Structures are given as C-alpha cells and as structure tokens.
Amino acid sequence: MKLTLPLQGYFELLRHQPGEQKYVCINCGRPVSGLYRRISSTVLKIIDCEKCNQPADKYIEFEVLIILIDLILLSKPAYRHILYNSNCKNLWKIGCILILLEAYCFWTDSFRGITSISYRSHVNDPFLSEKGFYLSTVHFLTGFALLFGFIYLFTRLLHRGVPLVSGNGTSYPYMLLHGVILASIGKFLFIPIIIWRENSTETSMAVHIVLVLVYFVISIVQIHSVISDCSRSRSCLIVLLAFIVKAYFLTRVSGLLQEFV
Questions:
Q1: Distance of CA 75 to CAs 43, 105, 240, Å?
Q2: Potential cystine with 49: which of 3, 25, 153, 210 (Cβ 3.0-4.6 Å)?
Q3: Cα torsion at 37, 55, 74, 95 (round to 10°)?
Q4: What backbone phi and psi angles, to 5 degrees, belong to 109?
C-alpha cells in the first residue's frame, strides 16, 4: 500500500536527492539530509536532528489544520516547516489576494478611521470609482515592494551574519520574499471590517485595524528572526525601521496617486 502523507496536495515536501543537505530541522534551523526514513511501504520513521537530537520535522505527520493553527500562534517550527521543508507554490497567489483585499478596503473607505488617504472618487461615475480601486491596488503593491526592499536593505546593514543562501539551498532574498508574504496572511482578519463596516463605529474599526497591523508586525519579526537567524530584538529593530521608512516613502507615493483621482 502506498503511504499518502497528510500534507500531500497542500504543502508537499520538497524533493531532493538522498544525502543532500537541503532540508532544515524545524527546532534549531540546521540543515539535515532528510526528514524521514521509510521502514516499509506503510511505515515512516522521522529522523532526529544530529545537533538538537529532536525530530527533524514533526509536522510531516500532522494534519494541515494543526499546522495552520501553529502558524496563527506564530510558531517558529511551523514557519520553518512551511518555508524550508514544504513546496508551497501558491504563496504568490495568497500575496495577490491580500493586496486586492487591502485595496478594496481602501477603495471602500473602510480604513478612514486611521488614515486620511482615500482613492474613492466623490463623483458618481462608475468608471472613476473603478479607477480609484486600481490606484488603491498600486498603492498597496508599492507598499509591499517598499517593505520588502527596506527589510532586505536594513538586514544587510545591521546584521552582518545574514546568509547569502538559506539552510535548504534557496537564496536569501527569495526566502525573505516568501516570509513577508507568509506573515501577511494575518491580514485576512480585515474581512470582518468589510462585512460589518456599516454596523461598526469608526473607533471600533480603527481598533480592529490597529490590532491586525500589530499582529502583522509581530509575524514579520518572528519570520525575519527565523530566516535571518538573528535575535528577536535585532529583527524587531530591522522591521520597525523598515516600516517607518516605508511609511514615509508611501506617503509621498500616495500624494502623487491622489492627484489622479
């Protein structure tokens, strides 16, 4: 009988040749040659990491729902499993969906409680309103690019030990890009704002938005610490600097975009 892993169809394990140091221990982050050893056609035994003597990747036996719960709880092992040991090809699709979601929130003025930026035209013209949505999309796409660029730049400046290649052989910029997208999953919590916007006060909406953004920042700090192999305090400094500089430049970009509305 052929054994089907719980993650098949969701986060499939990366395929490497035997003996290659391409997987990563989810506990200590050190490269390992493999994650499991096949005892028989129906039995797998998880390989222990030679450095920390713990199972290299316990999540290969877990259901996807448990992995998602650990991701929501900002678990470092769960992040390492997804980023290093899984072949998640749909992260870029998730990133596109999140950008469109935020653009829709701005377009409908759902974020008016904490910002004065708005791309929704006051003219009752469907074509102008549609133009506002496209400008909102450009706004958040630019913001994502700025955030990724400044995190990468400040990491190079403030963390000399950042690897050029990650533990599984993937380039650091590519892994960091995946990490920023993965951290953005918490922005799906903006959906309740869209649903209950008419029945909520601006104060409650502003509190909701701030909480989601704080969770997003904490997620990026945690993932940056995993990918860059540095302390949380240094990751926090790098991420906060990137957010501040990104906000400054994005404000300038927003001013230019609002001239087109």
A1: 27, 29, 20
A2: 25
A3: -20
A4: 60, 30
Q: Tell me the pLDDT tens digit for each residue of 142-161.
A: 999 999 999 999 999 988 77
Structure-token pair, residue 8: 């098949």
For 112, the enclosing helix (H) or strand (E) is none
| Per-residue pLDDT tens digits for 79-93 | 999 988 887 777 888
How many angstroms separate the CA atoms of 187 and 85, rounded?
24
Q: What is the spatial distance between Cα 232 and Cα 224, in angstroms, rounded to a whole number?
A: 8
Closest among 91, 117, 89 to 103, alpha carbons compared: 117
> How much is the pTM?
0.82
| Cα gap 58→137, rounded to integer Å | 39
Cα 225 to Cα 1, 18, 67, 220, 252, distances in angstroms: 41, 29, 19, 8, 30
∠ CA 15-19-23, nearest 5°, is 50
Whether 176 and 91 have beta carbons less than 8 Å apart is answered as no
